[in-house]
Design brief:
Elements lengths: L8 H13 L8 H11 L6 H11 L9 H22 L3 E2 L2 E2 L1 H4 L2 H19 L4 H28 L7 H26 L4 H28 L2 H4 L5 H4 L5 H7 L4 H8 L5 H15 L1 H19 L9 H14 L1
Antiparallel strand pairs: 1-2
């Protein structure tokens, strides 16, 4: 049971999965809609719909009323994953082949496009007095997610990326959607505007913290638990927080591996990981993530509602799960 607000985590997840299973995604042509159902069935933490339900439940009791909208947010998230995987040339998503690997890139692009259209369809059942504001917030968030993804791709050809630039990129690419989910749930519940803003800020800060932890997991996670290929960021020279901080010291051996055109994958991963270890990059990244988690908890100080503590507990449980 999620203390104080009457949501049992397992039953909430089951309700979300049931709602996702019945989403009106279309059937014909099968080749267009089957990839959507495939990625939506891959599971995951369902963090975004859960945050939407929790923020709603702080103010209202019956979360079944907004399940469709929580599922819509998850559909949008999976749309971004489908396209991101193509751009990142990723082969695994949640331990399974990515959509473009299982089908093909053209199908993955088109299926992702129609997923986004279906998200707008799901929002259309909102009351008129909420639809306009929802679309305003959603469109702003969706554009920012695209901006963040473009920044991430731009970084691939940049010789130097600053810590500030990187943090702004992950704020846009990852964190603003978490902020939207929390603000959206609170808005649907009729929460005070100051609470909606505080919940948005909470979501953005935990989103940055989660991404920093994800950077760590890409290097240090157990492959079986991680669901993605460990070391993929190292192999592709992806400018994560770890690499950016390591490059500040201009370590010669690190630059050698970054410029290498031919290498043995396992050897490169092991070598760069040793460099990170020698420079204390793992601990540095962990402390940075903790800073954002603490900043997130402070955002809730303005909310005069005892049920807000559930968000702290929920965020802490997820952060601890990633360590």
């Amino acid at each position: 049971m999620i203390a104080g607000i009457g949501i049992e985590t397992a039953s909430a997840l089951r309700a979300i999965e049931a709602e996702i299973a019945k989403l009106p995604l279309g059937t014909t042509p099968k080749s267009l809609y089957e990839p959507i159902r495939y990625i939506m069935k891959l599971g995951g933490k369902r963090l975004r719909p859960m945050l939407t339900l929790i923020s709603y439940a702080i103010y209202q009791d019956d979360t079944t009323k907004i399940l469709r909208y929580a599922a819509a947010v998850e559909a949008f998230h999976n749309f971004t994953l489908m396209h991101d995987d193509i751009m990142d040339k990723a082969s695994l998503r949640r331990g399974k082949p990515t959509v473009h690997k299982k089908y093909n890139s053209n199908t993955a692009i088109l299926s992702g496009d129609v997923m986004l259209v279906k998200v707008y369809d799901m929002f259309l059942s909102l009351p008129d007095n909420m639809l306009r504001e929802t679309l305003r917030l959603f469109n702003k968030t969706a554009a920012e997610v695209c901006e963040g993804q473009q920044m991430d791709m731009d970084f691939e050809t940049m010789t130097k990326v600053s810590e500030k630039e990187y943090l702004e990129m992950i704020r846009l690419k990852t964190a603003v959607l978490l902020g939207f989910c929390l603000e959206f749930g609170a808005m649907l519940a009729g929460a005070p505007e100051k609470d909606q803003k505080a919940l948005y800020d909470f979501g953005v800060n935990i989103g940055i913290g989660f991404q920093l932890m994800d950077d760590l997991l890409d290097v240090y996670a157990d492959q079986k638990k991680f669901g993605k290929t460990v070391g993929g960021d190292i192999v592709s020279n992806k400018k994560t927080y770890l690499l950016i901080k390591a490059l500040e010291s201009s370590k010669k051996e690190l630059n050698k591996w970054l410029s290498a055109k031919k290498f043995i994958r396992k050897k490169k991963i092991a070598a760069v990981t040793r460099i990170y270890d020698s420079m204390g990059i793992r601990e540095l990244t962990f402390r940075k993530a903790e800073k954002y988690f603490q900043k997130a908890y402070g955002c809730l100080d303005v909310i005069d509602n005892p049920k807000k503590t559930i968000l702290i507990d929920f965020a802490m449980s997820l952060a601890n799960r990633q360590k």
